[in-house]
Every structure is written in C-alpha cells, then in structure tokens.
Amino acid sequence: MEKFHLGAEEINALLDRKKDGVLSTIGQDGFPYGTPVNYVRIGEKIYFHGRHVGEKVSNLEACGKVCLTVVETGGFERCGDCCNNTTTIYESVIVRGTVTKVTDEAEKVKVLEATIAKLVPERVKDPMNPAAAKAAAVYEIKVESATGKYHRPMPENKIMQ
C-alpha cells in the first residue's frame, strides 16, 4: 500500500460516513461543473437524486462521465514553529465513473429509502410520498475507479480546530 493512500475498506467507510460530496460533470462549454450532492452507496454503486432539469442534468445527458469528490477534515496539525508549518488533517475519496438514470420505479424507491436512512434516519418510519418519489430523478454511478488519500497527525504535534 502506498503511503497516505486509503485502502478499499477505508474508502467505503468514508463514503458511508459522509453524506455529501461534489459531483463534477463535463460542461457543454468544455469546463468542469461541480455540484454539491447528497449520495448513498449501495454495494459497488453510488446513487444521488435531484431534478430532471438543470445544468448538471444537461451535462449528464451529453456525457455520462463523472467524478465524485468526498472529503472529511479534522482540523489542522501544527508541524513546527513557523505559521506555514501547518497542514490539514483529512481523508478524501475521488470516485470516477459513468452515470445512468434509474428508470425502474421499484429501484428508485429502494434508493430513496436508503438515502433517507443515511441522511435523516429519524424519518425512516414516516411514509414515502409516492408522487414525489415518482417525480424524483435518481441517478446511478457505476464506479470505474475509487482512490483515497489521507493525512493523519503525528502524535507529537498539536491539533488545532
């Protein structure tokens, strides 16, 4: 294992722990376009939901290649006496894959239920609005690669929030 790289279990743990990330698409103008999204990992796939319209959706329809970036920070590490001897404590994951729209209604509901269980578990017992579920756009990312990195503090250094 390479130094400062997360293993597969650590990558999945971070993806499961965090609730949001930035989904980058390829804009029709050629520029990257990053959108904050909530997501859920189910098995080897990642799902997010939203509307059926907008720049993100137009970009996905033109090119299904995406990148999802998820980061968790834990303050800063003081590594020396100079102010620039400071570094961020973090874990991050970058997922690359291709997106398809979920059209099967039963699968959409399953994904929406899993999303609710992850994001707002206290709402799991509340009924789902069938019309709202049907109206939601649900997207699946087929993961082609997932890489992770970290910086953890050295025991002798001070952690600052």
Helix-strand layout with pairing:
Elements: H1 8-17, E1 20-26, E2 32-38, E3 40-42, E4 45-50, H2 55-62, E5 65-78, E6 86-102, H3 105-119, H4 130-135, E7 137-151, E8 158-160
Antiparallel strand pairs: 1-2, 1-5, 3-4, 4-7, 5-6, 5-8, 6-7
How would you characterize this protein structure?
With 161 residues, this protein is an alpha+beta fold. The protein contains 4 helices and 8 strands, in the order αββββαββααββ. The chain has helices spanning 8-17, 55-62, 105-119, 130-135; strands at residues 20-26, 32-38, 40-42, 45-50, 65-78, 86-102, 137-151, 158-160. Strands 1, 2, 3, 4, 5, 6, 7 and 8 form an 8-stranded antiparallel beta sheet that branches. It starts with 7 loop residues before the first helix and ends with a strand. The model has no long low-confidence stretch (mean pLDDT 94).
Per DSSP, the total helix count is 4
- Global geometry: globular
Helical content class: 10-25%
Low-confidence stretches: none
Largest sheet: 8 strands, antiparallel
Approximate strand percentage: 35-45%
The string of secondary-structure elements, in order, is HEEEEHEEHHEE
Report the C-alpha radius of gyration, rounded. Answer: 18 Å
How many E-type strands?
8
Task: Give average pLDDT, whole number.
Answer: 94
Q: What structural class results from the helix and strand content?
A: alpha+beta
Task: Measure the end-to-end span.
Answer: 29 Å
